[in-house]
C-alpha cells in the first residue's frame, strides 16, 4: 500500500478540501429542508418502492416530481439510511461539491501539473453559485459531479484511443440525463468534438466509436423514461408538469423546449394580469410570461401560507419534530428579481447579450469572478501549445475539453430567453475554474518569456480586479463597513501587484532592447510573491460572497450566494438565523384529519403541491395535489373525481391556493356540493371575516350562501392567499348521494 507523503501539494489540496467542506457543510442546519417541493417527494419516496421508482411527490402515488429520478433516488437512500431530516437530504449535494473540487484538481493536474490543479480546485470551491447549490437539495451539483467523472473518462479515451473510456463517459452523461434531463447534454459538444479531434487513433475508428457511444448515451438516458411510459397510467402516478402523462413529453416540453424559450404552453402558470401578488414571490411592476410564472411557482415558491407542523410521528415511525423551514423562506426575495430585488430569478428576463452575466442582476456575482481569467487563460494556453484542430497531446485535449464546455454554456446563458435560474450557472463553474488554473500557470510561463504574450498575465489580473470592482459597485451600499473595507483592500492589492508585475515586465523589455546583460532571474522570487498576493486578492471577494451562505440561509428554492446574499442580509431584508414564526401555526388541521379520517385513501385533497408539501414532510400522510405542482396539471376529470368521492377514496378538500383548468372545475364543484367545515375545528386562528358557525344548519346555510357567489369562491381559489382564503369541505354527505 502506497503511503501518503506529507508534501506541499498534499497539504495544499487537503486545505482546499477542508475549505470546500467548511463552505458546504458549516451551519447547514439553517437551510431547513431546502426546497420543500423536492423534500416532500423524497419523504414520499422513502415510504415504499413504488414511490421510490416513480419519484412520486406524494405518499399516495398520485403525481410525480417533474424531474428525473437519479438525484432524488440518492437523496432518498441517504434519508432512508440516516433518517429523514433536513441535513440528510442536503448531505449528498454538499458531498458532491467537495468531491467535485478534488476531481477538478485531479483532472487539471493530469495535463497541466499540480499548481494548475490546485488553483482550479480553490477557484471552484469559492465560486458562490457552486457553494449555494451544494447547500441545497436542488440536484444540479450531483449533475456537475457526474459530468466531471465523464470528463475524466473522456480524457482517458482521447489520450489512449480506447473506446471503452468513451463509452463510459457517455454512459455517465446518460446518468446525468437522469439527474437533470437535457441540462446534462450541455457538455455534449465538449465530449464529441474533443474525441473527434484527438489523434490517438484513425478518424474512421473515432467516428464508429462516436456512433456506438451515442447509441449507449440515448439508451441510458431514456431507459427510465421508456420503462415508466410503458407502465399503464392507472398503475403509476401522473407525470407531473406533463401535458399527456408521459415522461417523453416532459423531456421535450417542460424540461426541454420551454428552457429554450420556445414551445411554451399558454395554459400553464398564472395569468400575469390576474395573479395575486404574493409579497414572497412577485415584485411590483414586473411583467412575467405565463410560463415564467409557472416556473416561479414551481422552483421559487416558498410554500403556501398553509405551512403546517405537528408533533405527530412520521408514518414510517420516525419522529417528525417541528417542521423547520429555512430562516428566510418567507421573506420578500424580489420574486423575478431575486433576493435583493435584482432582475434575474428568471434568467431569460434579463437583457440578452454578451454583457448579461456581467450586468447588475442576480446572475452576475454568482459566476462572473473567474470568467475573464478563464477566457484569457485559454488564449494563453492555445498560444503556448500551438493549438490546432489536431489534439495530439494531453494539454491540447484538456484545453479543448474545458473551452468547449464553457463557451456553449456562456453563449446559452447570455442569449437565451428561455427559463433558467441563477443556480443553473453552477454548470459553468468547473470549466471556468479549470481554465483559470490552467491560465495562471501558462501565463506565468509566458510572462517570463520574451514575447508580447508576457503581457497576458498582468493584463488578465488587472481585468479581474476591474470585474471585482464592478461587482462591489453593484452591492456596496448594502454591505457593512468592515466587509466593504476588506474588499477595497483586496482590490487595492490586486491593482498594485498587477501594476508592479506590468512595470517589471516593461523593465525586462527595456533591458533586452538595450542589450543589458542583467538577468531577470533575480526578480523571479519577487514576481512569485506579487502573483501570490494578486491571486489571494482575486479570491477574497468570491470567498466572502460564498461564505455568506454560512451565516445567511440561501433561498430554499432558488439558492444563490455571493455579495447579493450578503448585502440582502446586511440591510436587514431577512430574519436570518431564525425559524419561521408560523411553524406549527395550523397543526390543528392535522389533528382534525387524524380524528376524522378512517378508510379514505387520501387524507386531504388540495389544489396544488404547494399546499401539500409541509403536511407530507411532517407526517408522511397521503395528500392529493389535485393539479400537480402548479395546480394546472389535468390529472383528473370532474367525473373521475366524483367516482373517487363515491368510492370513499377522498372526503376532505381544502380549497384556496392555486387551482386552474380541470382542477378549478373540481374545486368549484366541491364548493357547491361539499359541507363547509367550521374554521374553528381545523384552524388555530379563525378569520375575523368568518361568521361564527355553530351547528350543521349553519354549515348548510353557509354552503348555500357561498354557492350563490361562485366568483367569490373562485377568487378564494385563485392565488396563494393567506389562511383566510382557505376553506375545508367535507364530501361525506355528497358521497352518500352519489351512491
TrEMBL record:
One of its GO terms (biological process) is response to iron(III) ion. It comes from the Bacteria. Keywords: Cell membrane, Glycosyltransferase, Membrane, Transferase, Transmembrane, Transmembrane helix. GO terms for cellular component: plasma membrane. It is found in: Cell membrane. The keyword Transmembrane helix applies. Residues 268-345, 681-739 are annotated as: Disordered. Residues 681-707, 729-739 have a biased composition (Basic and acidic residues). Residues 589-673 form the Putative mannosyltransferase YkcA/B-like C-terminal domain. Residues 282-308 have a biased composition (Polar residues). Residues 332-345 have a biased composition (Gly residues). Residues 66-224 form the Glycosyltransferase RgtA/B/C/D-like domain. PANTHER family: MANNOSYLTRANSFERASE YKCB-RELATED, UNDECAPRENYL PHOSPHATE-ALPHA-4-AMINO-4-DEOXY-L-ARABINOSE ARABINOSYL TRANSFERASE. This is Undecaprenyl phosphate-alpha-4-amino-4-deoxy-L-arabinose arabinosyl transferase. It comes from Clostridium beijerinckii (Clostridium MP).
